[in-house]
Amino acid sequence: MALEDTRTLRFFNRGPSAVARLVFFSVLSLLLLFVDARYRYLESTRQVISIIIYPFQRLTALPGEMWDGANAFLSLQSHLVAENEQLRLRHDADSAQLKQMETVLNENAQLRTLLEIKQRAEYSVQAAQIVYLERDIFKRKLFVDAGEQNGVQAGRAVVDNSGVVGQVTRTYPWLSEVTLVTDKDNVVPVQVVRSGLRAAVFGSGNINELELRYQPVDVDIQIGDELVTSGMDGTYPPALPVARVVRVERDPAYPFARITCVPLAGVDRHRTLLIVSGVPALPPRPVAEAVQDNAERRKNPLRRGKP
Questions:
Q1: What's the chain's Rg over C-alpha atoms?
Q2: Domain 124-281+292-299 falls in which CATH fold?
Q3: What's the pTM?
């Protein structure tokens, strides 16, 4: 039994000892390092080996690279989404601020023009701001923040930097009701600048339309003619722009031409208006004509005189 164990031990212990093998391989490694560093004999061998093992290196590194790429993509995607949301909110805020600035600039330009009109006008004017509009959509009326306490009286003309807006038809202690020239019950005596023809322009109820009524078919009125106040009613000062002719229909079958105009004033745009006062009063009419005129006024409260 002991003899068999000794033979087995000797079988596995044949060859150089472990120390000898360590020394041999150490010297061999140093020799290869010296030869490679000195003469570079193993350069081609190393390149071939690197080419062979490169696919395996890439294969082993691929999962990590894919994981890092997915994390970077998701992080970048979330960052871009958040940045786009911030930019959208900032764009909306800047757009709203830009609109406000444009509104302020337009209002300042209109106020400067009104100030120039106030300085060079031969009659006195008073600035007023629109408070609110008439609730009835079929009435072209608005209310301004100047009333009896500010010396405003019914019948005074209301203008802006472009022309006639309307007329004060009712006053309250701190408010005044203004009926626009486009109201269907409003009449403004006008004069054609080109020909000097006197007429009367009527409101149609449409905010962008006026009508020059009761003119014969052969009347000397053309498209583009500008209409200004004639100043013959004691309400509107003369030469204030009112409207421009945009359409003339002449049908021989009807006694009158159909003439359509557009108002020149910003009847639906501006916020600040001017109330005209100090217009010289006209001399009183004869008694018979005054009685007839009073009857017409009862039928049409907005009528202040004949064109």
A1: 48
A2: Thrombin, subunit H (2.40.10)
A3: 0.59
